[in-house]
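tool_call: predict_structure(chain=1)
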Amino acid sequence: MTDADFRLLFESAPGLYLALRPDAPRYTIVAVSDAYARATMTRREDILGRGLFDVFPDNPDDPHATGVSNLSASLGRVLASGASDTMAVQKYDVRRPAEQGGGFDERWWSPVNSPVFAADGSLSYLMHRVEDVTEFVRVQRRGTEYAELTAQLRGRTESMAAEILLRAQELQQVNEQLRGANAEISRLYDKTRELDRLKTQLFANVSHELRTPLTLILGPVRRLMSIEPKDGALRHDLEVIERNARTLMRHVDDLLDVARLEEAKAAPAYAHTDVSALARMVSAHFDSVAQELGIRWRVELPQALPAQVDPQMLQRVLFNLVSNAFKFTPAGSQVRLSLRQDGDRLVFEVADGGPGIPAEARESVFERFRQLHGGAERRHGGTGLGLAIAREFVQLHGGSIAIDDAPEGGALFRVELPARAAAGDASAAAAPRAADEAERDAAVVDALRERAVPAPPAPGDDDGRLPLVLIVEDNADMSAFIRSSLAGICRTAAARDGAEGLAQALALRPALVLTDIMMPGMSGAQLLHELRAQPGFDSLPVVVLSARADDEMRIELLRDGAQDYLVKPFASEELRTRVGTQLARAQTMAALRRSEEYWRELFTQASDGILIGDAQCRLVEANAAACALLGRSRAEVLASRMPDLVVPAEAAALSQLPADLAAGRPVRCEWRLQRGDGSAVSVDAVAKLLSDGRCMALLRDATERRRREQAAQAAAEELERRVDQRTEELRRLVAELEAAESRERRQIARDLHDDLGQLIAAARIRLGVLCQDERADVRSAALDIAGLVEQADLSTRSLAAQLAPAVLYELGLLPALEWLAEEIAQRFGMRVELCDDGAAKPISQEVRTVVYRAVRELLINAAKHARVDRVQVSLERHDGWLSVHVSDGGVGFDSSAPRSAAGKGVGLVSVRERLSYVGGSFDIRSIPGDGTAASLRVPLEEDQGTAALPPIR
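tool_result:
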């Protein structure tokens, strides 16, 4: 299940939502959607945590206001019934912010109040959802004067009703999703706790079950070793068994300790202890190891330092820290163990000269199973539990452990412990050390000694007839076991890591490479990749050994070129069989390659060019036809790679050829080959992967086909040129139609203003007499008609201005835009902020009209759809162009989504087309929830005395 940010979803929902606590009569606001905050002219940070009616009181200037009482009654019904309550349309005025003049703004709402229940069925929240129907109510009050406007409003009313129903259904679905998500989170949390408990129990069970067979292994092995067998090989095998059994026992003990710590069953057994002597005993384990590894081992301990601690836990902490320091410190560097008393606390420091620990990883290294470098190329083994156990033992003592940079150049671990236990917690003397703890310490030291074991020597020329197998394995015991298992079927050479294995493979050219996956420095997977990149090693058999039974890794390695994958532990007979099979297969393939002469004649006489390359596309074969196409000798062709033979412009595309062929599909394409004389020839090529891993390309001269295609292309280009020419003619005709339309608009506007305006003026004069009539009924009717005549006069002037505003043609673009800003503010209640850089912007009357109509279309769109109370319009001159930018911070829209002809996209298309007629351009960018920004550019006329011109003409 993907995690979802439900808070972000709620706040970004397009509907108007408010979440309330059911703490009647306060109804504290706990969440608000962005749309609700915009609609009510509030800010989220100002209203969260406040009471509903404190934020939204009744309008004190409206004595008939009932918004608070009606909403309070509806919320009360939801509390009482536990069911949603739909209210009738309410008049509930909204307080304007002080920066907008204060007071109250008349608003009408369609509210729905719904309960939100918790998982246990209790009422947690109340969801208050509203739909702003103010404009709808105002339209109904005002009435309609034109049938077309009535139809539009009716359609919008129906759309709004459908939208209200849709939003109610969406809110119900969101509520159901929220309830389902909460239930799923609770279930997953319980499941996680159960899995943690089962994991801890599994660790404890596995640890206990493994200790018994390990004891039965170690006991007989030590008994056999005490007999001191004369057979050196047998004693060596017994030592290997004992050493690896102790290592396994150490890992089992770590898991058991983790289980005990998880179940809180581990507690310090305090005793009076000389911690200096205890630290000295721990340091003694590493004296010989330091000499073998070439590490300077420095111990700074006081003569004696009594304290009350758990000696077994403290010894385990010190042993883990010191062994960790030795593990990561290179030869020639220093490891230090020091102890001092600081007041009532003990301070241990373990410092090393290793690579150190980055600051950002100093906390994560104490997490269980976490290793700083835990990939396949990690330099050191382990379970990643040592530091985690050390920290938890320290914390059980009430102490702390921290990591810093060491003066020696690596990491510094500082452990601080109380020198005294809590009252009554310390026994008289320390308990004797358990035998299994000594076993564990010995296993740690043995693992460190493996770093000092030299790599096995290269094999002698005992039997040159046997194939040579290179074994790449970092564990010395495993390497020796593999070599002994393969004795008799091959000669062997050994390497300790991937880098050494690569060097030996290049020097010895073995018949087969047997490599582990997880090795220091270069992993087995990296070794495989490097081998396949070397010339002549593409068919070298590689068998991979791994302790991970991972099908995905096995498939990936086989795809990368490994011939086999063997999971540890394995039987020596299985190893011998698989290696023998791969050696036999390699010999068979070599024999097949030596017997390829039977098809050589066919290859040579083929009429089509044939090129054969290795896995890296290095050419190994070329027939006469291919050489003729390339105009090169066979030696010149074979000295190249396939990408080298194509023209430089297409070489990059051909570099993907190996990857395409590895997918197992033939590659069909056209190549342009670079001939020896510098000319180019087009060929149809088919490339495919051969069964032996090589690739083959069949080439056929495509010169004639290209000639025909070029002729067809030329015809298509000529047709496109004619289409462009006809399109330009159509654009010119449309521009003429645009000019004619503009003239017609001005004529209609002039007729409305002059003729109808004069009639209305005459009617107003005559009605003025009737308005003074002594008869009350005549005077009242005259006043009503005078009001209608006044509205008709305003509508006539507005319609005339919309058709062709006189200010545009008489004063210029900027005054016209200022008039338009006032018109938009009166019509839609949206403020237009106009900004002009003051530079002269000479444009023609035609361009001025197109720009004005484009800005008007954008402002009307913003007023209808952006849901904002202000829009910015800026004009500036730049490099001979007039740029106009219109931007809002509204809801935006998905500019990549297609729009129907009935949507707002038609107007924007018209804007773009009209601007193109006058040589201009138009660009609009919008992000849902982040607003819309539109830019248009038109060319300016050449300046002629621009200093005397107004800013825009």
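agent: The chain has a mean pLDDT of 77. Proceeding to next step.
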